[in-house]
Amino acid sequence: MCIIINKQKNTFHLCNEEISYIMTVLPNSQMGQLYFGKRIKEREDYSHLLEILPRPMASCIYDTDKAFSMEHIKQEYGTFGATDYRIPAAEVIQENGNRISEFCLHDYRVEPGKPKLPGLPATYTENDAETDTLILGLEDQQAGLRLELTYTVFARGGIIARSARFLNHGGQTLHLSSAMSLCMDLPDSEYDWIQFSGAWARERYPKVRRLEQGIQSVGSLRGHSSHNHNPFVILKRPNTDESHGEALGFSLIYSGNFLAQAEVDTYDTTRVLMGIHPNGFDWKLSPGEEFQTPEAVMVYTDRGMNHLSQTFHSLYQKRLARGYWRDRERPILINNWEATYFDFTEEKLIKIAEKAKECGIELFVLDDGWFGQRSSEHAGLGDWTPNLDRLPEGINGLAQRIEDMGMKFGLWFEPEMVNRDSDLYREHPDWILAAPGYRSSHGRYQYVLDFSRKEVVDCIYRMMAKILSEAKISYVKWDMNRSITECYSAALPPDRQGEVYHRYILGVYDLYERLTEEFPQVLFESCASGGGRFDPGMLYYAPQAWTSDDTDAVERVKIQYGSTYCYPLSSMGSHVSAAPNHQLNRNTPLRTRANTAYFGTFGYELNLNLLSEEEQEEVKEQIRFMKEYRHLIQFGTFYRLKSPFDGNITAWMTVSSDRKEAVAGWYRTLNGVNMPYTRLRLQGLDPEAEYEVEVRGSCERGTFSGTQSFRIGTRCGDELMNLGLITSDASSGQNENAESCDFDSRIYILKAK
Ligand code: DGJ
């Protein structure tokens, strides 16, 4: 990895073995983009890559020149008002109302390693040799504004991390009405755009469409990254598939309002923008003040979508997630939410926990309803003190009983919210986000605390820290169950109201930072009505997240599949729940619920006492299986094999780093009769190795079991990857032994001999 600076030719070349990222200083001293893609050799001169053609209708910079127009030049950080008509990366309003900016290169520096972004989540290094960072210092003299564009190139992987920082060193007050983290001008538009969209309980479905002239974007104005769209998009070449071809991934390490956008211009170049959503954003920069954007990560691959995802997985698993739990196998947990909802007593919880312990579960999590007057959605949020009617010895007493059983104890919080029926609200009604003169809308009867105010965050911190330090708590589920409305802070002046959304998220990050620092061994799991804040920003503080409130196995396969495009399995909370399922009323086999949930951070979300003895035995075997394979599943190399969005069969697998072991999941939505022969091409194996292959679930001989493995035989790695594993089954309609069914699934286990 290195950063090569050619002072004569004014070029900057960031590279490692896989990628090159090349920029140049343009004749007007602004920064031009020359190339981002597969590694190319260092050359003396790249000036031929700078395309400047005279174009009809162009507005030009120089009096004597009819070609030099910013409209047609690929740039690093396009700005508004001076010949570039595309959507800019930033917009700055000066005291005289001027919105035109011109950022010219003033200085630059190269630093080993990677600087931290104060108050914001970001990728990091463990030693300086892992990355190099280039910081370009640009100046808009007229505005008295300095812009620092930061580029970090990693030694391994096609990764460039970027962010921007604005420093007002002039004498006037400025307003940033847009400040993107990333602007990337690509030379053509032959891409499929993939976004990850959906809704509550059906998050992150990949949606693919061809880029066309005009703007394609996704974003959130909900105050959290949202179920609706994820801050991650892919541009892939039309012929790129999971194992071949070029793709670019763009991911924003941020949990609030965001925009991800591609604008294809008249000449088929593409501008990608990513950052805080400019709608509702207005950051006042008084003289001497600075503004730091969140970090955006770009990944390039020419080896297909699985490779793109694997690059994000290892980066986010090892250099975004932090702390004690980063590299550790995650505890198998039981959560009481779907088992009891608000209807529980300590004794009821203990019975659930006892059965869980008997089955081998390691962590008992008490969800919503343990505090204040919280016996329904209407009351209690904000009062983080135990309800002694339900828990006579408080959290301390319950946690101790669970610990005495030999399990760890975890607890649910929703720190950012308050019910009107709570002591906190009665004492501080002005602590919610609310616009003067307007009605305050609720979501689930709750209101959003103004986390842009330090005293509010401090107060919640004190309540949470007290509980965490008094009781033996090993895990926290941090929930957030509504989007923000009436985003107005009573504590900020009128000309700073455009800062509230971002200041709110900074407050959330601040609370996370304080708690994770003070309680480093507590495992944090983030949640926002399931996957409403399933983003890289959260991963920096909480190494796992509740993937979705939808626990139906068939739906979960889709949600988890879509999530794997960016996020590692170690980040995905995935639990076995009851049948019929509480969201869809669907019955799926217990084995399928587990076979789906294994591919994440495994757990249960039901009352195991209500299962038959046979099912309880199956659960014990599932837990035994997961304990044996969770390291491989959670930390192995993950491959998508067959998409639930393309057909009846879904398949995926993880492979150990030495390629000696692999576990594959196979899921079939509907059963069929007299079905065609089928094969599944595996990936990532050692072509030379011979693997012993076993199956759990229905198999080609018509046997099935949720608890037993059946030996298939010895197969060669090259055969498994090229011919495929035979997966045809015996449900021909004439075989009486065939016990396969709708929503069936199997786990294949491969071990090199
Ligand atoms: C939404 C979460 O996603 C659920 O798992 C549960 O914790 C409820 N909130 C509790 O209110």
TrEMBL record:
An example molecular function term from Gene Ontology annotations: alpha-galactosidase activity
Highest taxon of the lineage:
Bacteria
Limits of the Glycosyl hydrolase family 36 C-terminal domain: 650-750
InterPro entries under this entry?
Aldolase_TIM (IPR013785), Alpga-gal_N_sf (IPR038417), Alpha-glycosidase_related (IPR050985), GH (IPR017853), Glyco_hydro_27/36_CS (IPR000111), Glyco_hydro_36 (IPR002252), Glyco_hydro_36_C (IPR031705), Glyco_hydro_36_N (IPR031704)
Key word Hydrolase present in the record? yes
Q: What protein name does the entry list?
A: Alpha-galactosidase
Catalytic reaction annotation = Hydrolysis of terminal, non-reducing alpha-D-galactose residues in alpha-D-galactosides, including galactose oligosaccharides, galactomannans and galactolipids
Q: Which UniProt keywords apply?
A: Glycosidase, Hydrolase
Q: Which Pfam families match?
A: Glyco_hydro_36C (PF16874), Glyco_hydro_36N (PF16875), Melibiase (PF02065)
| Catalytic residues (positions) | 479, 549
EC main group: hydrolase
